[in-house]
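Fresh eyes needed here. Have a critical look at this protein's tokenised backbone.
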Amino acid sequence: MEDIIHELEQRTTKKTNFMIFNMAEDGSNDSAKVADILAFLNVAPQIDNNNFKILRLGRMAAGGKPRALRVTLRTADDMKLVLRCANRMKAYPTPRIFIPRDLTPRQVENKNRVLEKFRQRRGRGKEVSLKYIDDFPKIVGSQ
């Protein structure tokens, strides 16, 4: 029971967060980079630049791989607006930057399990596809 309550608390906390992966750590201001990304996604007018918090997660790696960046916005609607526009990042001048939701460990585990089942079915030649319903993957097609 405590696990369920803890999971719900985590989801409530994370509902205004999104992540940015592969954004270089070159010593410059991360806030300015996030503001630039929001402007590129054309959501900056709706989201005031002073109304988000950012945090780099984890330790710096010796290999130079940039740490993930967690961005916390004021409302869940702002976060959903960013995620709806996140597919535009494919055209961003810096390649390979992507923006997913901030998921709890249990959500990540569930997502990975569904993706593994999808890959297995696809590998066996089944006609299946992934459909995201309420931000979570579901396998659609022949079982």
